[in-house]
Design a protein that fits this description.
heterodimer; A: mainly beta; five-stranded mixed beta sheet; 8% helix; B: alpha/beta; Rossmann fold; 36% helix
């Protein structure tokens, strides 16, 4: 059992030391003012320093607060739906797997998700439980989606992409909003965001949310009986204090709980019971040697998966220090150092704890060579040291002394931006991303029927290499812009759980291993525009095709390892949106076409793993809102509303949802 | 085995779309107007210990130069009665190059185009009063006589001459510095 009190106490002590060690001077990023100044979105998610969206050396999208409000969504996964290159597979209410640049699956773990830079993906396996993220849609300033590997900046897990959720600044922004929602599936939601200025130097933002709803009800009978209704509770307190003219202190506490239904990495539906807590403290200082940020946080997860008997007790603590500075007025630099400790009880039945420490150092150099060219290079080195202690299941063929992996991994991101004129922007980029093994991959242990399932201390990191060319430009004829990207991606040493069978006198164990490589080719095209003052629209097309070389089938061709991407990735996706806003009305319609593909599924009877065809489909959602007065807005949201239920994935059919929301600004 | 990615027709069609876009003409560059002063006002808010609230902006112009007069008149028209953008409200104070002593008491200086022959004197006045100089004349910043160049079209462009700013003892918010061009 992890000694949380000891760890939290240690964290507080370290924070106190950190605070006294700094000699002040800094500002948190004033997104609002910079956005108004430059007339476009600004971001730090591309290279770790503030940039205009049109200057970034990566392919990315920024979803603004207005777009979030006008989406038909009632949760984060809904906001990300209908976006090019982002695949949202909804498994039930409050449950979705989301990938960027393909490779989606149950429990997908190729995406780094952050809230204001704090990781909110779950570090026991690297997956994301979107509804357990303690953030309310009404407090989000923007969501930044970086497509492709970016581990040289953010570290492990950012191999498919990065989603950074940026909330309003507690000190600079005043957001006070409450909403109540009711709808089909007995859906009842309440959300609150309040900003409080204790004085002109201390700002606090408090947010909370409650959701109760029925789960989708068309799963196979064997799984349906074990599913649970959605129950989400979330609370976040975020504060920022101006210590001196140039130094700010941020303190954040969050808590969430979620009962939901997930599609497991084994490709089976299961009830899930998540509980998360986090504590964070940051010091931001504008000093003579640059903009220094010291960041310390700890994330705690209690996860119960009743269908497997798995009890996950995971805590990750991260300490980061970074300095962003400019040399000679020309060269933007970022130096960073990071330490993380990630620990998990191996299982409630087996006892023991598996953990790793990661020591990291990184550097980024952004050089605007001249008005036409800018070059960015980033390198990060991670040293992971694995450890295990305590009891173990007898059939697992590894002694604790063998959990001594010492991985040294190098991540690289490099990008050249060429602006041949005032209109066109062309980007060429290369990335080498590292997907390190998770604690599940390394060392979980659980009894599953007659066998013991376990991780392996000998599993290697997945290395994802990405080559990309992109072009974008404004198009006056449509009062909008055009964007495109073509990319090739290699994933070496894809990881699988339950891969190798080991028979010993103590029993049978099936352990994790790397199962081969995979390649992805893709193309994205997108247009957006506006007309007649009140109308806006966008449309995008994404083509992605995957070629697997995986050791996932037996000699007879049956799938024995639940990993398959070549057949499960839909190759063609088209998204479109059109919106109208005038006076008190806002009306938006969203649609997507997804081509047919097979999806991996698991069942109790042979064939245990099989591919289930999912035909092509069209999904449509929409929102109509009427502003009753300066404070009240009434909106009607329809999600996937053109059919009662629709097969969009292998888990279960997606049901139509209709919601009515009353929101108040105060 | 590698799958065939896109059929020839698909590929040809997809490539044709972006190529066609290059034929679409773009709008001509805008002149100095209200939009430029929106950028100027917001940029001034990133000057550390810079002007706050309502700020008198000295419009330095050369009455003998038509381009300078046109620029000054345009500035006065935009700012007349007070021009609010972000946290600042700018009020125009017309200052001919022959009477640079009038910049004293203002919060910042806007250097119009067509004042090249007077850049040295303007710089002297700005340094004497510790006032940041902003201009729509790129040459003034390139030569180090002005601290900041601002343009708003076709996209917002801000250039700061580090030497000129340093001579005025002016520093900028670090996030702002990362997003502009420094000479």
């Amino acid at each position: 059992m992890i000694n949380r009190k000891r760890k939290i106490l240690g964290t507080a002590t370290a924070l106190a030391a950190l605070m006294t060690a700094q000699n002040a001077s800094a500002q948190s990023m004033d997104y609002g003012s910079l956005e108004m100044l430059f007339g476009e979105s600004v971001t730090t998610s591309a290279i770790g320093v503030p940039q205009r969206a049109t200057d970034v050396p990566v392919t990315m999208e920024i979803i603004t607060a207005d777009e979030i409000r006008r989406s038909a969504a009632s949760d984060l996964s809904g906001v990300l739906k209908y976006r090019g290159g982002v695949e949202v597979w909804q498994h039930s209410l409050g449950s979705a797997d989301i990938s960027v640049r393909g490779y989606n699956q149950g429990g997908t773990n190729r995406l780094l998700v952050l809230v204001n830079g704090r990781q909110v993906y779950l570090d026991h396996f690297g997956l994301v439980s979107w509804s357990s993220i303690p953030v309310e849609l009404n407090e989000i300033r923007q969501i930044e989606i970086v497509k492709g590997p970016n581990t040289a900046l953010f570290g492990f897990n950012a191999v498919g992409g990065v989603v950074n959720i940026v909330t309003y600044n507690p000190l600079l922004d005043d957001v006070d909003r409450a909403s109540a929602t009711a709808g089909t599936q007995a859906n009842q939601q309440g959300s609150f965001v309040g900003s409080f200025k204790l004085n002109d130097k201390v700002g606090v933002r408090v947010s909370g949310g409650v959701t109760d709803a029925d789960h989708f009800e068309n799963a196979p009978a064997a799984e349906l009986a074990g599913l649970v209704d959605v129950e989400r509770r979330s609370l976040s307190i975020d504060s920022l204090t101006q210590l001196t003219d140039k130094t700010q202190l941020g303190v954040e506490l969050t808590s969430s709980s979620l009962d939901t239904v997930d599609f497991l990495p084994t490709m089976r539906l299961s009830a899930m019971d998540y509980a998360t807590q986090s504590g964070r403290i940051r010091l931001l200082s504008d000093t003579g040697i640059g903009r220094i940020e010291a960041d310390l946080y700890t994330n705690i997860l209690d996860l119960t998966i009743p269908s497997t008997g798995l009890q996950i007790d995971n805590q990750v603590t991260v300490a980061k220090l970074q300095d962003v500075f400019k040399i000679g007025g020309k060269h933007n630099m970022r130096l960073s150092a990071e330490y993380r400790h990630n620990a998990m009880d191996t299982s409630s039945g087996a006892g023991g704890e598996v953990s790793f420490d990661v020591f990291s150092a990184g550097g980024m150099w952004n050089w605007p060579i001249n008005e036409k060219f800018s070059l960015t290079n980033a390198v990060r080195v991670d040293n992971l040291k694995l450890d295990r202690e305590g009891g173990r299941l007898a059939p697992i063929p590894f002694a604790n002394s063998q959990y001594d992996a010492d991985l040294l991994e190098v991540s690289v991101n490099s990008g050249l931006v060429w602006k041949p004129d005032d209109i066109n922007t062309i980007r060429l980029s290369y990335a080498r991303g590292i997907g390190a093994p998770s604690l599940i991959d390394f060392g979980f242990q659980i009894v599953s029927g007659p066998v013991a399932l376990g991780g392996s201390p000998f599993i290697d990191s997945t290395v994802v290499t990405n080559y990309e060319a992109a072009w974008e430009r404004p198009v006056d004829a449509i009062n909008g812009k055009f964007r495109s990207a073509i990319f090739y991606q290699e994933s070496e040493d894809v990881k699988g759980i339950a891969v190798n069978t080991v028979v010993s006198p103590a029993g049978v164990a099936v352990v994790a291993d790397n199962i081969g490589d995979s390649e992805l080719w893709g193309l994205e095209l997108g247009f957006s525009g506006a007309f007649n003052q009140h109308w806006n629209w966008r449309a995008d097309y994404t083509f992605e095709t995957i070629d697997d070389s995986l050791r996932n089938r037996n000699a007879a061709g049956a799938i024995v390892v639940a990993k398959e991407f070549e057949d499960t990735n839909p190759e063609h996706t088209v998204n479109a949106q059109i919106g109208y806003a005038k006076d008190k009305w806002e009306i938006d319609l969203f649609g997507s076409y997804v081509s047919s593909s097979d999806r991996l599924r698991n069942q109790a009877a042979p064939p245990v793993n099989f591919l289930e065809p999912v035909g092509d489909y069209i999904s449509v959602s929409g929102r109509a809102a009427y502003k009753i007065d300066d404070q009240l807005t009434l909106s009607l949201q329809g999600q996937d509303f053109i059919t009662d239920e629709q097969r969009q994935n292998a888990a279960q059919k997606v049901e139509r949802r209709v919601l009515l929301t009353l929101s108040a600004d105060f | 085995m590698m799958k065939k990615l896109i059929g020839t027709r698909w590929r040809t069609g997809l490539l044709a779309v972006p190529l066609l876009l290059t034929a679409i003409p773009q709008a001509a560059q805008a002149e100095v107007t209200k939009k430029d002063f929106q950028v100027i006002a917001r940029a001034l808010s990133f000057v550390q210990n810079g002007p706050k609230g309502t700020v008198d902006l000295a419009i330095v112009h050369d009455p003998g130069n038509p381009a300078s007069m046109a620029d000054a008149q345009a500035a006065q028209n935009v700012l007349a009665g007070g021009f609010k953008a972000g946290a600042l409200t700018l009020q125009p104070v017309m200052v001919p190059v022959s009477d640079l002593g009038k910049v004293a008491g203002t919060g910042a200086i806007f250097v119009t185009t067509g004042t090249d022959a007077h850049h040295g004197a303007i710089q002297g006045a700005s340094q004497a009063n510790g006032l940041v100089t902003i201009t729509d004349d790129r040459g003034c910043v390139n030569s180090g006589k002005c601290a900041m160049f601002v343009a708003s079209s076709p996209k917002v462009e801000i250039i700061v001459n580090g030497g000129a700013a340093s001579a005025l003892n002016i520093t900028f918010d670090s996030a702002f510095r990362m997003m502009i061009t420094e000479l």
